[in-house]
Model the fold of this input.
Amino acid sequence: MDNIIDKKENEIFNPPSFSNKDDLLNVLYNNASVYLVEKDIELIKKAYNIAEIKHKGQKRRSGEEYIIHPICVAIILTNLKMDVKTIVAGLLHDCVEDTEYTLDDVEKDFDKEVRLLVDGVTKLTKISLDTDKVEMQAENLRKMFLSMAKDVRVIIIKLADRLHNLRTLEYQTEEKQFEKATESLEIYSPIANRLGISRIKTIMDDLCLRYLEPKEYYALVEQIESRKEARQLFIDNIIKELKERLEKENLKIEVYGRVKNLFSIYKKMHNKSKTIDQIYDLFAVRILVNDVKDCYAVLGIIHEYYRPIPGRFKDYIAVPKQNNYQSLHTTVIGKDGIPFEIQIRTYEMHRVAEYGIAAHWSYKERNSSEKADSSEVNKMNWLKEILEINKDTDSSKEFLSFVKSDLDVFKEKIYALTPQGDVITLPEGSCPIDFAYAVHSAVGNKMVGAKVNSVLVPIDYKIKNGDVISILTSGNSNGPSRDWLNICKSSATKSKINHWFKTERRDENIARGKEQIDVYLRQKGLKKEDLFKNEYIESALRKLTCKDVDDLYAMVGHGGIKESQVIAKLYDEYVKDNAKPQTDEDIKQSILDLQLKDLRKKESQSKQKKDKLTQDSDKNKSQSVEIKGMDDLEFRFAKCCSPMPGDEIVGFVTRGRGITIHRTDCPNLMTLPDVERKRLIEANWVDESSITQNFDILLNIFTNNRKGLIVDISRMLTELNIDINTLESRTGKNEKATIQIGFSVSGKDALYKIIEKLKTIQGIIDIERI
Done:
C-alpha cells in the first residue's frame, strides 16, 4: 500500500526557495524510485542533464538558477506519482520556450509522446491575463481545453508549473502578482478541483488568497495561530476518543486530524457571512478504513457516541462529486460542546481524493501492462460541456466569459435527480431550463414545462438539493425563447440556447446580417465592391473566426458580432492594399501639415476659451459634431451610450426632438427594426483636437466587495482632478459588488487612461463603459 498520508507533504509540494540543486535532485530521484523502475530513473536523469545544459546561465527573478524551477515541477509530479514521460516533459517544459532546443530535438532524444506533452505545455505558457490581450488569452484557453481532451497530462504539468510559480510570486511586481493570482484562482485552481487533485488545489488557493486579499489572509493566519495549542489539544483528545471507541468494535482504522485550508475558511466566511467561530468544520478528523461497509459502520458508531448536527451529513459515497470524490461527511458536537467535522473514507477513496485524475496514471503504470491514456477524460462531463461551448461559441471573449463563469470557485453546486435516479450537478440558482439542457440539448430545445417532486412549477423555479425533476417536452415546440437566456444560470445552457438560434434560424440570420452590413456601408459612403474582395474577406474571416461569408453574415444577424467590426476589418485590408509608398516630399509635407495642424489647434483652443465665456454649453456641443448635408442643426447626445470624441458616431432622426447622436455600437441601435434604420444619418466629429468641452460618461466597475474600496476609487479620481457626478453601488451574492460611477471627461483617450489607473486599485475585477 502507498504511503498516502505523507507527513512531509508540504515539503515535497513546496520545495523551499533557494534550495540546493543537489538536495532537490536527491528528493526528485528518491520520490521517483519509490514507484518507478531503474530504466525510468535513467530517463529522468537524461532529461535533467539536457535541461541543465540548455538553461545554463539563466536566472529567475528570485536570483536562483533557472534549472531549480523545472526540478521543483518534476518533484511535484513525482509526488502525484505521475508516469515517467510526464516527469520528463516537466523537466523539459521551458526548454522549447526559452532556449534553442526544439520539439524535433525532444522527439529525437525521447519520443513523439514526450514531444506532444512538451508542445502542449509550451503553448499554454503563453496564456496571459493582460487586458490588452484578452483575445489571445481566450484563444489559448481554447487550445488548453482541446489539449486536455487529447491528453490530460498536459494540464497536470501546467498545474505543477503554476503551483511552483505561485510559490515564487513574491519576487514579481504587485501588478504581476495580482494578475497571476487572479488567473490561477479563476482558471487553474478550479481545473485542479475538477480533476480531483486536492493536494495542488488547496495550496494554490491559499497562495492566491495571500496576494489577492493580503489583509484577510494574514488576519486568518493570526486567528488560527492564536488557537494553535488549544486546537492541537482538542484534536488529540478527539483522535484518542475515536480510536478507543472504534477499536473496541475490532475495526481496522487510521485516524488523524486536519485544519481546513485558509481559502476554504475565507470562502465560507464570505459566502455565508459568518465569523471564524461560526465555521463548524474548522477542525476536522479523517478516518480511513478498508472497505465501504466499514465506512457506514464507523458512521453509525460515531453518531451513537457524538450528537450529530441536523442537516450537516453528506453522503458523497452514494452520490460522488463531479471529480469522483467519495467520502462520508458528518458534523458532530464534541463532549465539551465544540462542533467538528468527521470525514470517513476508504484508502482507495483517499488516494483518488488526493491525486484525482493523476491516480489513473499511477495505478495503470504500476498495476497493469495497459498503457496510460486519457480514457478517464471521457468521464468528465464538465470538460465535455466546455468543449461544447468551444464548438458552439464564435466569439473568443464570449468563450472566456463562459469558462470563467463555469469554473467559478465561489459558485456552489446543487444536486438534482432525474425520475430514473440519475444525479445531475448544476450551479446553485439553476432552474428547470438548466436541468433540461444538462440532460440533453434535444430535451431543452423541446421543453414546454417541468415538474419538481411531481408538482408543476414555473420555468424560473430555483432548484434545491435532492429535487426530482421531470421535464415536459412536445414535438410541436417552436424551440427555446430568447427570454430563457435571462432566466437560466449555467454557462453551458446559455451556450446551447445561443447555438440553437444560430443554427435553426441560420437563413434568417444570414439575410438580416447582409442587410445590416449593406445599410452600414451606405451610411459610411463605402462601396461594397471595394471592400468585399476575396483576399480582404479571407483575412476578416480568420480574424473573426468565421468559416465563410455566410457564417459571417449569420453572426452579424444573430448579434454575435457588430457590422461595424466586420467593415473595420475589411477596411483595414483595403487601406493596406491601397497605401502608396511615401517619398521624401510626402514626408516633408506631412511634417508641415502636422505643424500647421498644431498651430490651428492652438488658435482653435484659444478661440474656444474666449467663446466659452459668451456661449452656453449647448452651443459648444453643436460645434463638436457635423451632420452630413446639414448645417447649424440642433442635436443632442444620447444618454443610453454617452458618445464622446474618439467614438464612432451616427445620427438618428427622432420624431419631434431633432437629431440624437449615438455611438455606432449603441445597444439600442443594434436592436433597431429594419424600418427604423432608414432614419439613421451620417455624423462625424469635427476636428477632435479642437473640442474642449467635457462629456458625461457612466462606468460599471465590477469588484470583490471590501471595506474602503469606494474611498480608494474616490481618492484616485480626486488625484486625477475628476469630479464625480453620480455613484451607486450594489452587492450581489458571493461578495461581488458592482459600482456605477459617472463623471465627465474630454474624450476616449482620456477615459482609457482613467480606466487603466482605476484598474490598479486592489479588488477591481473589470471595468465596463455603459
In short: Confidence is low (pLDDT under 50) at residues 1-12, 124-132, 362-375, 609-622. Residues 584-614 form the longest helix (31 residues). The CA atoms of residues 77 and 667 lie 49 Å apart.
